[in-house]
Amino acid sequence: MTNSAPPxxxxxxxxxxxxxxxxxxxxxxxxxxxxxxxxESGACRDTENGLNTFATQADLDGLLQLNEASPETGLFLVGxxxxxxxxxxxxxxxxxxxxxxxxxxxDSPFFETE
Length: 114
Known about the structure:
alpha+beta, 6 strands
């Protein structure tokens, strides 16, 4: 017998709760799915940081590939079918301490700590 249950993923509300539990402010609003392939999207009105969930790994991978090809690569914290996007690398590094996930792109000079 195989286990075909999908992996447990966060809802947008759970993602928001995990984000603010890290101490970052986020007076948020649910938005249209502004990120390519996203399932649900929300934006923090006070910081412009975005929270996004994805239905499949392929959708999430598609966003990262699209962004990699862009002249202006975004900065993300990438988790299990979720992404936090920000123009402030410090916010993403703070969020990572409580939420886990990987900073993307990993080789970005913005994430270097010295």
